[in-house]
Every structure is written in C-alpha cells, then in structure tokens.
Design goal:
This protein is mainly α. The chain has one domain. The longest helix is centred in the N-terminal third of the chain and has 29 residues. The radius of gyration is 18 Å and the shape is flat.
Length: about 140
C-alpha cells in the first residue's frame, strides 16, 4: 500500500469535483448544440456549475485540511511547487490549442456561444490534464 500526501489528496478532490460537475455541464452543452430546441439555459447552468464547484471545493478542502492539520499548515514544499510548475507548462499547450481552435472556428461560421463553449471546454480540459499530470508526477517522485 502506498502513502498519499496531503497535496495528492487535494488534487484528487479537485480532479473528481471538476470531472463530475463540468463533465455534466459539457454533456448538457453537447445536448443543446445537437438539439437546439432543448430547453436548457446554459448560462444558468454555467453559473450553477461555478457555484457548486467553489462551494464543494471549499467544503471538502477545508475538511481535508482539518483532518490533516499538520500537513495543511506546513503547506507545499519545493517538490510540490516544481510539480505544479511542470503541470502548468503542459496545460498551457492545451489551452493554446483551444484558443487556436476557437479562433479558427470563426472561419467555419460557428456561433459565438459555440466558440465560447469551445474555449471553456479547452480550459476545463487543461485543468483536468494538469491534475492528472500532477498525480503522475507525485507517483513518479517528482
């Protein structure tokens, strides 16, 4: 059995919350774009997703910090910061590709909401990818 650090637990929480909430949100976006007559308010759903994510993250991360008080007070060390930087560099490329795709989709005459949701999709994808990279780097030892 392997030991999971406080930072890894925090990343797992963020990954699960992001995948569940924004996975559902993106599913609803796809539903609306595939069937425009669907009665789903994406703006409202987006704000609900944001509020849910923030609320759940604050609650669960606070609980994690209380349970792991010593590690939470200590904070991230040099290894943690290096892992964050490595994952940030990788997620940057996904976000850049997403911005290019959204920019080029203007020439394909996509609607403004479709372009906005494409940018949001790539932003969320880059976040998820960043969490996964961090978890892999923690398992490898940095």
């Amino acid at each position: 059995m392997f030991q999971v650090s406080f930072q890894e637990k925090s990343i797992w929480i963020s990954l699960i919350v992001t995948v569940l909430i924004f996975g559902y949100y993106q599913f609803q976006v796809a539903t609306v774009f595939l069937n425009p007559k669907t009665d789903i308010n994406l703006t409202y759903l987006f704000f609900v997703a944001i509020v849910l994510t923030v609320t759940i993250q604050i609650g669960v991360q606070t609980l994690l910090a209380v349970v792991n008080r010593k590690d939470a007070i200590r904070g991230p060390d040099e290894r943690d910061r290096m892992i964050q930087l490595k994952s940030l560099r990788a997620t940057h490329y996904i976000l850049v590709v997403g911005v290019w795709v959204a920019g080029l989709s203007i020439f394909m005459e996509f609607s403004a909401p479709m372009i906005a949701h494409a940018v949001l999709f790539f932003f969320i994808l880059s976040e998820i990818f960043g969490f996964i990279i961090q978890l892999i780097l923690y398992r490898r030892g940095g």
